[in-house]
């Protein structure tokens, strides 16, 4: 999805590759936002903004954006070549994929972990279970932050590699095996359309009401 947004220029304070082809970009926080919201980002060369979830906490001094390089894409190859003090164009935050203090499951694939890291760093961890699906062991971005706080409420599902403490298989298989998924809790899904559609189907077959499934799809 590409949106026409009002954009302003801002300088990056940091950019680093945290896993092969996956980058964490930061800039000083210019506005307030609610964890789970997105911003538009453009190179400013007439390119329509692409949307990105904010991956940092509401009160952090810097805004973090987690993104994966799409070599065929128009924006991410340009973004990934930037360094500290280079500029990007950003919109104000918006979006309603936000979460309160209720018990909930946060379910992500790949860079879809970004809004949940924002909620996590904002302190919304009570009663939350975090599931993250990835292909290889390098896909579990921020696990060093999640593990000490969430313990066994943080589940990593790895489809192509195995390691102790990590579920060997796809996120969807892990969910199908679960017998205790309370229907009154909220289920927040974020990631590729394929993951969101597959997980939503599994949750519905497990008796989770449609209204308790809240999705953010990365087109
Ligand atoms: C709500 C939301 C939140 C998002 N948050 C994140 C996030 O936090 N992190 C993240 O990594 N991504 C996120 N995304 C995805 C992000 O917005 C971009 O789509 C992604 O980064 C690719 O951008 P790009 O400009 O590099 O690729 P694009 O130029 O948009 O291209 C994407 C794909 O489409 C193909 N393509 C492009 N133009 C054409 C064409 N004319 N004909 C046929 N195929 C074409 C390309 O080959 C490429 O494979 C989010 C998306 C949404 C909707």
Structure description:
With 219 residues, the chain is α/β, with parallel strands linked by helices. It has 2 domains: 89 residues, Translation factors (Elongation Factor Tu (Ef-tu), domain 3, Beta Barrel), CATH 2.40.30.10; 114 residues, Rossmann fold, CATH 3.40.50. It is built from 5 helices and 14 strands. The strands form 3 sheets. Strands 12-11-10-9-13-14 form a 6-stranded parallel β-sheet. A 5-stranded antiparallel β-sheet has the order 1-6-5-8-2, with no helix packed on it. Helix 2 links the parallel strand 9 and strand 10. The longest helix has 13 residues. The chain starts with a strand and ends with a strand. 35% of the residues are buried. The model has no long low-confidence stretch (mean pLDDT 96). Flavin-adenine dinucleotide binds next to strand 6 and strand 7.
Briefly summarize what is shown:
The protein has 219 residues and is an alpha/beta fold.
Keywords:
219 residues, Elongation Factor Tu (Ef-tu), domain 3, Rossmann fold, six-stranded parallel beta sheet, five-stranded antiparallel beta sheet, 32% strand, binds flavin-adenine dinucleotide
């Amino acid at each position: 999805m590409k949106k026409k947004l009002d954009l302003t220029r801002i300088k990056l304070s940091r950019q680093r590759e945290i896993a092969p082809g996956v980058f964490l970009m930061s800039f000083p926080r210019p506005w307030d936002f609610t964890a789970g919201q997105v911003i538009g980002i453009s190179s400013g060369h007439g390119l329509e903004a692409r949307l990105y979830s904010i991956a940092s906490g509401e009160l952090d001094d810097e805004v973090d954006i987690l993104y994966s390089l799409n070599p065929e894409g128009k924006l991410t190859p340009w973004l990934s070549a930037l360094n500290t003090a280079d500029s990007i164009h950003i919109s104000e935050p918006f979006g309603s994929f936000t979460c309160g203090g209720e018990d909930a499951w946060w379910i992500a694939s790949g860079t879809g972990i970004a809004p949940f890291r924002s909620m996590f760093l904002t302190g919304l961890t009570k009663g939350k279970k975090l599931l993250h699906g990835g292909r290889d062991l390098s896909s579990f971005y921020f696990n060093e932050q999640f593990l000490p706080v969430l313990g066994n409420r943080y589940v990593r599902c790895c489809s192509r590699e195995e390691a102790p403490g990590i579920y060997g298989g796809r996120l969807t298989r892990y969910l199908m095996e679960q017998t205790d998924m309370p229907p009154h809790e909220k289920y927040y899904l974020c990631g590729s359309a394929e993951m969101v559609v597959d997980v939503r189907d599994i949750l519905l077959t497990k008796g989770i009401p449609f209204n308790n499934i809240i999705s953010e799809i990365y087109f």
